Amino acid sequence: MEVVSNKIKDIRTHYLIVLRSKFSAGEAKQLLMTLLVEFSAYSKNEILLYPDKTLSESELLKIHFGVKELLKNKPVQYITGYTDFLDVRLRVDENVLIPRPETEELVEIIRKEWGQAKSVSLRILDIGTGSGAIAIALKKFFPAAAVTGIDISPQAVELARRNAEYNGVKVDFRVSDMLNDGWKGLGSYDIIVSNPPYVREKEKKEMHANVLEYEPAQALFVPDDDALGYYVAIARNAPGILRENGTIYLEINQYLPDETAALFSSFAACEIRKDFKGNSRFLVVRF
Ligand SMILES: C[S@@+](CC[C@H](N)C(=O)[O-])C[C@H]1O[C@@H](n2cnc3c(N)ncnc32)[C@H](O)[C@@H]1O
User: Does the predicted model carry a pTM greater than 0.90?
Assistant: First the structure.
């Protein structure tokens, strides 16, 4: 079946039917709208208000290939090349995890707890920074802070640097391995934040094909028999680089909150917090 014309209404009718073979009606509508806004000259309002406007052949072609990729499980953020994270627009590609809403909550916790310190020259470290989402969102909120982001992936660090530039903020992004000597030469910090890999291999079956086939395994998965290795490294090394009153904010595996918290039992306080879905998702550890 062909699209009957280049009019918005005909394109929408055609590709909604195509997308319904894989997605719910709501998802199909939302995904197609994202592609239309991204690949045409029209805004969402114009698309809704002027169904008789037409798209050029090249715009239609981009939408056609975008739909094809969606049907092959590619996340829409990798198709458009960006995602929004709180007040930050980030470029994303298959070298970095697409930041999740839970991680926005982690940043909100920090913004709330340290809101009075906006003009203070805080020192902040983001471990496993990926696209730079957490580090950049914090730097935007705490303009006087010195923010460092580290990641083992040189491609991720390169993208994070471009994201900082794109958002007009300065963040020190470095390639570093937190499981080895990546802690050397880091300095001292008021805030350490991390969303490290925490999904066990055996939890893969709970994940959607678009995650498994496209997002970087290095960003997500840990061995079943060493699920907490990243947290062990943080618990061991953080005391050496935390300042007085320093705090660690961690995203954690919802199935292992107590086991993860136990690693921080020698710290002054360790609190498990729930995410918006009611899952035990964060640790706030005070030094
Ligand atoms: C769950 S992703 C988080 C990305 C980003 N902070 C976010 O929240 O969207 C974990 C990140 O840790 C990085 N990583 C994995 N092993 C690492 C290591 N040994 N040292 C430093 N970073 C590592 C991955 O490359 C990935 O970018």
Answer: yes
